[in-house]
Amino acid sequence: MTSVAPFLILFVGGALAAVTSGRLRQAVLLSTPVIGAINLYNLPLGTSGAIELFDYTLVLVRVDKLSLVFGYVFHLAALLAAIYALHVRDRVQHVGGTLYAGSSIGALFAGDLITLFIFWELTAITSVFLILARRTERAQATAIRYLAIQVLSGLFLVAGVLVWASHTGSIAFDYIGLDAPGGWLILIAFGMKSAFPLLHNWLTDAYPEATPTGTIFLSAFTTKLAVYTLARGYAGTEILVYIGATMTMFPIFYAVIENDLRRVLSYSLINQVGFMVTGVGIGTEMAINGAAAHAFVHIVYKALLFMSMGAVLDRVGTVDGSRLGGLYKCMPFTTVFCIIGAASISAFPLFSGFVAKSMVLTAALQEGYPIVWLFLLFASAGVFHHSGIKIPYFAFFAHDSGIRVKEARPNMLVAMFLASFICIFVGVYPDPLYSILPYPVEYQPYTAAHVLVQCQLLFFSALAFVFLQLTKLYPPELPGINIDSEWIYRWLLPRAARSLLDQAHILGVRLERGLRHGLDLWIQRVFHLHGPHSVLARTWQTGSTVMMVAALFAVVLLFSYL
């Protein structure tokens, strides 16, 4: 069977969605990822689509086991998001989402850094429409900030590629490392999209402001594409171990005190990507398999959690924890699906997170990172708190808010059901997932020790939550603004810049006044000496003038003689 470049099918689907409507457009949206997945399944390993450009060769498609596992889950995510968005009548979201998926897949299979850069920028341009489609003033401002960060990431990437190519004479996208010229610039570009610490605010800023369906697309592609690029270019780079461990830790504290439940999930997403980055940094076959497996299952269960909160937002109009509660009475199916997503992200046995996340933890211990392993263990307990308990508890249980709405739309329920089924299926029977990982898997998740340790961790985490709730020590859900590092560039730097400009203006005014005053004094002095009424301007008698000239002549002679 003849196959084409994977991104082409998504791009054609996006173009067709732009010119169709109604059920025909729905058919296009559903069939596009299915056809794309069939095409991907038939793609042979290796490279294809080579194009000569000046002295370089662009490779549009490079297929290996690392790109394939991400390619499969990207198509799966595109299908789930398409089903979830079927009720939407907004052409912008349909076209933007499909083209965004196609751009991400294009970057995924890029065999060279120039092709990667082109699709890297396309992901930024196409995804911003999923935020703009919210059509609020707040979303527009967020979209501008989001696009600026994404484009800046592209600038770092192209700068690094130029340095890299000028020194090596190659643009092939293989292992890069930090010793290579341009390696740090490219790592910063990948790190911005991976939401490295201090570079992460675009994610928690943008994802909660996108449309309910737009967030499903956003949560699936950008950060996981960045994880793939790190695995491709920086596997075994030790600094990533510590960056990843930091990513797993700091979002926990923000997620616990955050009131917007979609923002809680955004912080949780950074926490989960941290596990993947740590795995990439460790770099062994077990760790890379763990990072890829975790990316696969995370895309599905994170999409499921965002879907459940999107359904709440669609029906209630808010996802603020302080305004919700008791929704299980009117949205029972959504509640169940949310709990399945929460169990998966918390790594309960028989759920997908259990069979994937532990591979990274095991690799950390095997490679001599016991402190990092403890960090990851603490982070696992933290994610159970903010995503496993907090999300379903405050949205569907807690105090009864009195809100009574309809159950989620049928297409939303179908998408959530499919995602839930995958979460449980992978958790019970992980062999199909293990078979598509980059390296052969010799890992058994269901050992007595692993199950016992994980159950103890979850039990004591739940116990701590109950204790904090009963003693009123758990941070209450209150409307407010959490100060993250974005405070530096969104509040501090603009005000510091304005203060500097104000001081510069005041200094300029004072300097101008001083100059004017000095100039006036100088003019007055000159006028005094040379004006019409000055001494020199008087009419002198002839004899006096001769005497002055003679005196000056005598002075000149005297100096000449000396």
How would you characterize this protein structure?
The protein is mostly helical and about 550 residues long. About 70% of the residues lie in helices and about 5% in strands. Strands 1-2 form a two-stranded antiparallel sheet. The protein is elongated. The model has no long low-confidence stretch (mean pLDDT about 90).
Features:
single chain, 562 residues, mainly alpha, two-stranded antiparallel ribbon, 20 helices
Query: In which range does the helix fraction lie?
Result: over 70%
Residue-averaged pLDDT, rounded?
Answer: 91
Sheet/helix structural class: mainly alpha
* Rg over CA atoms: 32 Å
* Terminal CA distance: 110 Å
* Largest sheet: spatial strand order: 1-2
pLDDT below 50 for ≥5 consecutive residues: which ranges? Answer: none
Order of helices and strands: HHEEHHHHHHHHHHHHHHHHHH
How large is the count of helical segments? Answer: 20
Looking at the structure, what is the overall shape? elongated
Question: Main sheet, how many strands, which sense, barrel?
Answer: 2 strands, antiparallel
Give the tally of β-strands. 2
Approximately how much beta-strand content do the residues carry? under 5%
Task: Annotate the secondary structure layout.
Layout: H1 6-19, H2 22-41, E1 46-53, E2 56-63, H3 65-84, H4 91-108, H5 113-132, H6 137-168, H7 183-194, H8 201-206, H9 212-233, H10 239-257, H11 261-282, H12 285-316, H13 332-345, H14 352-366, H15 370-396, H16 410-428, H17 431-435, H18 448-470, H19 486-530, H20 542-561
Antiparallel strand pairs: 1-2
Helix pairs in contact: 1-2, 1-4, 2-3, 3-4, 3-9, 3-12, 3-16, 4-5, 4-9, 5-6, 5-9, 6-7, 7-9, 9-11, 9-12, 10-11, 10-15, 11-12, 11-14, 11-15, 12-13, 12-14, 12-16, 13-15, 13-16, 14-15, 14-16, 15-18
